[in-house]
Amino acid sequence: MQNASTLGSVNLGRYNGLPIRLHISYLLVGVFVFFFRIQAGGDPLGNTGFILLIWLACVLVHEMGHCLTVKQIGGTNEMLVLTPFGGLSFQSFPQQAGKDLWVALSGPLLSFLGFAVAAGGLYLLDDDPMAGPLSVDKSFFSASALVVGLRLAVWINLGLTVFNLLPTIPFDGGWILHALIWPSMGDQRAWHIVRKASLATAVGILFLAITMEANGLSIGNVPLWLPLTIVAVYCFCFSAVPLSVPPGPQLGEPSNHESVQSADRLSQHIETYSTEEDPQLLDTFPSAEQTLFSPSTEQDQHQQADSAVDDVLQCVHDRGLASLTQAQRKVLQEAAVRYRSRSPK
Fold first, then answer.
1. Looking at per-residue confidence, does 160 or 97 come out higher?
2. Contact 89, 80 (CB under 8 A)
3. Among 198, 342, 339, which Cα is nearest to 262's?
4. pLDDT, tens only, 45-77
5. Spatial distance between the Cα atoms of 22 and 83, rounded to a whole number of angstroms
6. Could you tell me if residue 242 is inside a domain?
7. Which spans in the chain are helix H?
8. What is the largest CA-CA distance in the chain?
9. Do the domain assignments include residue 203?
10. Is the CB of residue 191 less than 8 Å from the CB of residue 174?
11. What is the pLDDT of residues 168-219, one digit of tens each?
């Protein structure tokens, strides 16, 4: 059974222990490319397969940039789901604005490097580096496999660079924007700004698509409004949903003995896991003393404690265990003690 993170993707295997999966949206891209390659003539099936292969390689390089940066800053990579516009990386690393910025920038930087290398290779081969793959001109695929691959790499890497610099989630630009404004605004307010920027970007791209359609602009036989509309819908779907799923059952109300055991394991993990407290995270979550501030009744005390645990669990879901401050770890340790005291004997 697939969970939420693997739903709609197929397993490609592992690389150095990292599970790599392919999102089903690649099938839609394949249908899109195949349709327009039929109109262009030549070998539509072979050309489509070659385009998707180079596309997948470029996306993999893009995401490897993120993964390598995460490892360099002391984090861990848990899973990678490749999508046509980049990927969904499931990672855990100490959350700081500077580290977030480098992790987010590493993908577009590597894609731009891929663009420069491919364009330079075509220049050395005395070829036009900006020859369009969607053109009705059949000569694009009439060259050698190396030249065609470099031509495709130029455009795909350029597209990955440009789109992932847009200030919208799920593109890297949304995370870049968050990292830039996080120190001055705080984590939660920064994400609120990013969500607004994402919706504004989606509307802007959609308006651009309408303008392109009204003027009949196209690249070869591909009307420009179509890919722009797809990107706008893609941005809107991600920016219109919550950034994280709600946490599960409240820690104050264990439903069975398994939940108590889970709390014990989490408490043991926290006790053996130590990181320096990040002052930038303290403005996001209240301290243990602030959270458990002198409630008037025992019921109020439990409700406030459970609410604090929910906030910390959401932080674990969004950022990983390594991002927790000492105060947040103390909240979870106290919750584990409450679990054990409430468990049936």
1. 160
2. yes
3. 339
4. 888 889 999 999 999 999 999 998 988 888 888
5. 7
6. no
7. 25-40, 44-72, 97-124, 145-163, 172-185, 187-215, 225-239, 257-272, 288-291, 298-319, 326-342
8. 79
9. no
10. no
11. 888 999 999 999 998 898 888 888 899 999 999 999 999 999 998 888 877 6
Of 114, 34, 104, 112, give the one whose Cα is nearest residue 69: 104
pLDDT in tens, 107-157: 999 999 999 999 999 989 887 766 665 554 566 777 788 988 998 999 999
Of 132, 165, 198, the residue at which a domain comes to its end is: 165
Q: In the predicted model, is pLDDT for residue 277 greater than 50?
A: no
- Domain carrying residue 51: 9-165
Domain boundary among 165, 191, 216: 165
User: pLDDT confidence of 298, banded at 50, 70, 90?
Assistant: low
Q: Residue 41: helix, strand or coil by DSSP?
A: coil
Q: Please report, as a single letter, which amino acid is at residue 158.
A: L
pLDDT digits (tens, 9 = 90+) for 74-91: 888 888 888 888 877 777
29 and 84 Cβ atoms separated by less than 8 Å: yes
Q: Is 246 helix (H, G, I), strand (E, B) or coil?
A: coil
Q: What 8-state DSSP symbol labels residue 73?
A: T
HSE at residue 210, side-chain half, CA atoms within 13 A, is: 6
Tally the domains of the chain: 2
Are 265 and 159 members of one domain?
A: no
Inside any domain, residue 238: no
